[in-house]
Amino acid sequence: MEFTQRYVALGDSFSEGVGDWNAECPNGVRGWADRVAEQLILADPSWGYANLAIRGRKMRQILTEQVDAALKLQPTLVTIYAGANDILRPSIDLDALMAEYDAGIARLRGSGAAVVLFTGFDSVKSAVFGKTRGRTAIYNELVREIADRHDAEIADYWRMREFQNWDYWDVDRMHMATAGHTLMAARVLEVLKSAHSIEVPELDTRPARSRLAQIKDDAVWAREYLAPWVGRRLRRQSSGDTLTAKYPQLVQPVWKPATRSAV
């Protein structure tokens, strides 16, 4: 099928859709980008969609592996979020990295595609990732400069204060859950000024938890999610090492009702 409008999503686990588990989807996840694509296709059947994002990818991997592949698809719209996995590393030359990001965005915009960039999430309420808050704030300012320089749009994750509610997050506390991905899809479509029929789910009010219960929950989380995550980084491994892109070519997927995949 010949598509006159072509949306390509680039990035890491955020754009791949990790946390929005659905065994019917490639890689076992759906995600906000799939939901954006669905709305674009519903409004205009001339849209095709590709998603090249793979969990665990760092910025240089995204620029090397995904930008050329995206350009071959002749995109009219690109969304890209890169750098989150770099920010979490012990040491990073952020200025050098963002100079490379600038060059990558210049190539995407030079193709004529509209480009949507993301600022980083404000981790102020995270006991673990809050330590990188200052680094993320610098990253965000550099992203804003890149967007201004190349006339790109920004989905301002940092200022989406709704995401400070941890009910939008998966049990691993690192990725958005289905509710979070649904909300993000609506926010991205608003940036694109595209009408949509997405209904953001209302969150249940959590009962107050005792300090002891919270400590027990934190211990379980540290054992089941944080420790394996740290271990992979020490071994220089990634959860995406054995995965390929969900939709490497332009398609119009049929999204089925969610069934949670094994994690």
Automatic annotation (TrEMBL):
SUPFAM superfamilies: SGNH hydrolase
Coiled-coil residue windows: none
Any Pfam family matching the protein: Lipase_GDSL_2
Gene3D superfamilies: SGNH hydrolase
InterPro entries for this protein: GDSL_Rv0518-like (IPR053140), SGNH_hydro (IPR013830), SGNH_hydro_sf (IPR036514)
Residue ranges of domain SGNH hydrolase-type esterase in the record: 9-182
Protein name, as recorded: Lysophospholipase L1-like esterase
Lineage: Bacteria, Bacillati, Actinomycetota, Actinomycetes, Micrococcales
